[in-house]
Design goal:
It is a single chain. This protein is α/β, with parallel strands linked by helices. Strands 8-5-6-7-4-3-12 form a seven-stranded antiparallel sheet. About 5% of the residues have low confidence.
């Protein structure tokens, strides 16, 4: 349909034929776009949710069965571009990117192919010159091409959507697609706006900029939408995003202005072309809002001397997640609006009643959190959204896993190792060999290795794993002599109103999500059918004479009411059903232990000899004053399938990707874990 949309065949044959059958007194002239563009996507999203539910059920019964994800061939997932404006790009991603650019080129080219038909006679009928008419038409067609990008823009940021995991993607890994689409959207929409302003100035119609048409295109709404988008876009460039994250965070909320006035600009009838992605995003955003209303039960924290903190929350047994998942954390005492993503270090199998996150205290928000934890507070008010992560433990398929981390990039791998600790205890489960290559700046950073084990865990739990740790300290030539700083544990006294973390839609979240998507859309159709039949049609009679803005607002309200009603009902039902389990978790919490249960310290030797048990020490070798020879370490690994995971600074991930894509070994399967959020 996207290929056919710009053609005369679609405009002159297909759409009139569809309109003849579906335009009615209940859905008006917007019915064709609802049927062609909105319904199929929401149907796929709902069916995808049910499919993932069945896949999760099967994978829980047998890990060897399908989990519902599409599994792309290994060759397609191999990096083909490493250094460049697009970052690390796999063969599949490059193919999809080229196909999407081809779609944009086809769309714009098909429209521009009509330019020769704009003759002097046609221009004279409109009272303009030929070049002016061509400029106006080109501006329109550029805007229509930009709508193709906008239609896909919201899929990657719908964190809990079923569309991404069905395709084997994660929300965190798909953020780069949102970035690419955002740049393309704003380039095209900016060109669209500038061309029209030039046209109005050249034809003496600059007053058109102030036009708010009753039943046609509203220019003012389009200008407001574009200004909101430009302000948002300006704060997204890497230098601003990294150095002024709060500016980036707050300006990103201008998407509300951008989308709302876009709908008023083009009218709801045409907006149904881009609405499916935004519809799924609104469902996800509302569910996140409901989840964030609960104060989570914070039990304890481990404060490391390298400015790293591990927070431990109570969770219900029904909340399960996979390694490398992330959660978004809000601490109202620091900022009521800011939500920051952090890696989950715990494992839902190994620690059924606890969820842990690791925080590196570097920015202003995290520094304030570190000060609060150092001030002997008894309770910290925290809200959480998530967790979000991969749909399966895909790394288990490898014979050997090589994990390369830089600094706090080790945090995603902690959850992987804890999952393998759990698997190693199962007699029927074979675990891959593990090589952890960690690069740190100073000896103090070595204490992050303490977090490989849960707070109440024992190093002996590593005894069943084939684990080898190569730790590199780059800024020091020899071990530090100051061993006074140790891992410190902090225990909190949560209030009875603080609740254990739980899945917002319960253990069967995919099933409930499918029910919300389908039931909310049905409810929307009923509401808009009633509004159209008894309010709009008596005034309009499907002649498109009704207020475009009013129609758009009525449709937006109907969408929001439908989503809020169905999602709230689903959340309320699950809350009541699993309230008893939350109470049991609170009752099972023991008394606050005295002292720190797991305060490991490193001495100045190259081996970790001061641990309570030698399992971790024997697996670890520390190198001072240099960086690892990654190529040698990776190529030394044996096995038919070697998973290579890289996490940390961009340069490190690019170096590892270059090694895996060099073609010198066919058994390397690369995966980059970035902090794009």
């Amino acid at each position: 349909m996207w290929i056919m949309a710009p053609t005369d065949t679609y405009k002159q044959k297909w759409k009139p034929a569809i309109s003849k059958k579906v335009v009615s007194t209940y859905f008006g002239t917007q019915a064709p776009n609802m049927l062609v563009w909105t319904f199929p996507v929401l149907f796929v999203a709902a069916m995808g949710s049910f499919y993932l539910h069945l896949g999760k059920k099967n994978s829980n019964q047998n890990d060897s069965q399908s989990d519902g994800r599409i599994r792309w061939p290994a060759l397609w997932r191999r990096p083909v571009l490493v250094k460049g404006p697009l970052g690390i790009v796999s063969g599949l991603e490059l193919a999809m990117f080229v196909m999407f650019i081809a779609l944009l080129a086809w769309t714009l080219g098909t429209y521009l192919h009509r330019l020769p038909t704009l003759t002097a006679k046609v221009a004279a009928a409109d009272g303009v010159q030929v070049w002016q008419l061509k400029l106006a038409k080109s501006a329109l067609w550029i805007g229509l091409t930009g709508n193709v990008c906008l239609a896909f823009l919201f899929y990657p940021v719908a964190r809990g959507s079923s569309v991404l995991p069905v395709l084997g993607l994660t929300s965190e890994g798909s953020i780069k697609y949102h970035i690419w689409l955002g740049h393309l959207t704003m380039v095209l929409f900016t060109a669209h706006g500038v061309c029209f302003i030039v046209f109005w100035a050249a034809t003496g119609q600059i007053s058109e900029m102030l036009k708010w048409s009753y039943s046609d295109i509203s220019n003012v709404a389009g200008e407001i939408s574009l200004l909101g988008g430009l302000a948002l876009w300006a704060a997204t460039f890497p230098r601003i995003r990294r150095n002024f994250f709060e500016l980036f965070f707050y300006t990103h909320h201008l998407y509300i202005i951008f989308v709302f006035f876009f709908l008023l600009h083009v009218g709801i009838g045409y907006a149904f072309v881009m609405l499916p992605g935004f519809y799924l995003f609104v469902i996800d955003r509302y569910l996140r809002f409901l989840q964030s209303r609960t104060s989570v039960r914070l039990l304890s924290a481990r404060v490391l001397p390298c400015n790293v903190v591990e927070l431990n929350f109570a969770k219900s047994h029904g909340l399960t997640y996979n390694p490398t998942s992330i959660v978004f954390v809000n601490v109202p005492n620091i900022s009521k609006l800011q939500w920051h993503p952090f890696t989950v270090s715990s494992n839902s199998n190994l620690e059924a009643d606890k969820l842990s996150v690791i925080i590196k205290c570097e920015g202003s928000w995290t520094t304030k959190l570190d000060r609060m934890l150092s001030s002997s507070i008894e309770r910290l008010d925290v809200a959480i959204e998530g967790p979000y992560g991969p749909a399966s433990n895909h790394f288990l398929r490898h014979d050997t896993i090589v994990m390369v981390s830089g600094g706090s990039g080790i945090t995603p791998f902690i959850s992987v190792i804890r999952e393998l600790i759990f698997r190693s205890k199962l007699s029927e489960c074979k675990t891959p060999d593990i090589i952890l290559i960690s690069i740190f700046k100073s000896s103090l950073d070595l204490t992050m290795l303490d977090l490989l084990l849960p707070m109440t865990g024992s190093p002996s739990e590593l005894s069943n794993l084939k684990l080898r740790i190569e730790a590199y300290v780059t800024k020091e030539k020899e071990p530090a002599t100051d061993n006074s700083k140790r891992v410190r544990s902090v225990w909190f006294k949560p209030l009875p109103t603080d609740k254990p973390m739980a899945a917002i839609l319960g253990p069967n979240s995919w099933l409930w999500l499918g029910a919300i998507i389908s039931s909310s859309f049905i409810m929307f159709l009923i509401l808009i059918g009633i509004i159209t039949r008894f309010y709009i049609y008596p005034k309009d009679h499907n002649k498109n004479k009704f207020s475009t803005s009013k129609r758009a607002v009525l449709n937006i309200l109907a969408i929001f009411v439908s989503i809020a009603a169905t999602a709230s009902a689903a959340v309320f039902w699950n809350k009541r059903r699993y309230a008893r389990e939350a109470m049991q978790v609170q009752n099972m919490e023991g008394q606050t232990p005295e002292g720190s249960p797991n305060t490991m310290a490193y001495n100045g030797d190259r081996e970790l000899e001061s641990l309570p048990n030698q399992s971790l020490a024997e697996a670890t070798k520390i190198h001072y004053g240099g960086r690892p020879d990654l190529k040698r370490l990776i190529f030394e690994c044996k096995g038919e399938s070697i998973g290579v995971l890289a996490s940390g600074p961009t340069k490190l991930r690019h170096d590892v990707a270059a090694i895996c894509s060099s073609g010198l070994a066919d058994n390397l399967h690369f995966e980059s874990i970035s902090f794009s959020w």
